[in-house]
Each structure stands twice: as C-alpha cells, then as structure tokens.
Specification:
By secondary structure, this protein is mainly beta. The protein is built from one helix and twelve strands.
C-alpha cells in the first residue's frame, strides 16, 4: 500500500483492480537504487562496479548503476544496440568524445559507437544509471573486436559475486523480468 494521501487532489481515487494482466510479472521496485552499500555492487573491472536493478535474459538487456569510487575505467567497447545513461553523481566520459558528464546529465549512445568509459577523480563517486541492450563488444587498441560481454556474462558475474558475499546466487534471479 502506498503512503496515504493527505491534501492531494487525487486523495479520493481508488486504485484499479486487477493491477496486472494475466501472466504479467510484478514490477521491480528497488529502494535507494544508487545505494552506498558496496556489497550490492558487482566488480565489473578493477576500478568500476555495477549494481544490477533489472535484467531481461530473453531481451539480452539490463539496467544498472555503474559506480567508481575514484578514477575508473571500462575498457574499449562498442554496443550494437542503443544505450541510455543518466548521471547521478561524480564525473565520467568517453575518451573519444568532447564532453564530460556530471550529476543530472543524460547520454544517448547510438548503436555502433565505440568508446572507452573513464571515471574522473571527484569528491563524489561516479554513479550512472545505464539501460543496456545487447552485448558490449570489447575492442583492441585498433578498434577490432576482441570478445564480448552480454546479459548472460553479466548474470554469471553477478551470481558469483552474490554467492561469494553470502546473499546467494539466486538474488540475481529476483531481478529477472
């Protein structure tokens, strides 16, 4: 039950019922998504970690909070599908572009764009909400394909981390939709 309304103009409205269509899954509600609780963040590289918020294995898609507490790096890669990013805190950018994102900035990445994600030193950790569709294609120093990282790799990484810290591998399956 949501918080009871007080003076809001809609206070006498009744919720709809039934809420979900047959076979629909429940919503994913994550309290304090950009939490400071570091155990919730899965190490992605040596300097960057990810808190999964929503995962669709069937669509090869996920949403997460990417975090770097200090200078960080996600190696060169490109996405064959679009990516959306919203900066919560800190400072980050791509070596290949002339902008630097800070709190409140939005980025749309076009399919096929190659880049090297860097987090800058900042008084606040870099926290960025990402919506990622499809794999990351790792690139070598010449921009040639050097492997991939997709939702199934992400799930495996998350399961291993959550098992290691005692939350259990099944924690990640609660985010599947």
């Amino acid at each position: 039950m949501p918080e009871a309304p007080k003076a809001e103009f809609w206070r006498d409205l009744k919720p709809i019922s039934p809420v979900f269509k047959p076979d629909a899954l429940p919503e994913a509600y994550i309290r304090n998504a950009p939490s400071d609780d570091e155990k919730l963040y899965v190490p992605f590289t040596e300097t960057v970690s990810s808190r999964p918020l929503w995962i669709s294995p069937a669509q090869n898609k996920w949403c997460d909070i990417l975090m770097a507490k200090a200078a960080g790096l996600v190696n060169r890669h490109y996405h064959p599908h679009e990516v959306f990013a919203y900066t919560i805190s800190g400072k980050w950018g791509y070596l290949e572009h002339d902008w630097t994102a800070t709190a409140g900035d939005f980025v749309y990445e076009t399919p096929g764009e190659g880049h090297t994600l860097v987090a800058y030193e900042h008084e606040q950790p870099m926290k960025v909400f990402f919506i990622v569709t499809g794999p990351l294609i790792w690139l070598d120093e010449n921009g040639n394909s050097a492997g991939h990282f997709d939702v199934h790799d992400y799930i495996g990484l998350c399961k291993a981390h959550y098992e290691k810290i005692g939350l259990g591998a099944d924690y990640i399956t609660s985010l599947y939709r």
